[in-house]
Amino acid sequence: MTDYVRVCEVGEIRNGRHRAFDVGDVSVLILNVNRTFHAVRNQCTHLDYPLEGGRQLGCEIICRKHGARFDTKSGRALGGPAVNPLTIYDVRVQEGWVEIALPSAQ
Q: In CATH, what class is 4-101?
């Protein structure tokens, strides 16, 4: 069974914006893309730099340290220097809250 964790209220992240939240010991980046929410680990896979504050272009996030680009729907690295994908989390909206599924190991 997958456990979902409440992260924030829907209204806390404006459309086209993102914000990082600590969920347990994991920093998670939540992105609002046309009122659809995506959640990824807030950590570039190139040099573990936080992605929060990077440029968001639709479903893409660009690391502000070295310019690595990622698709936040799939986690796939779209442009170097990163080659490894981001960790992504399932997201749902329940009663006005953005919730994410975290594996039990986290």
A: mainly beta
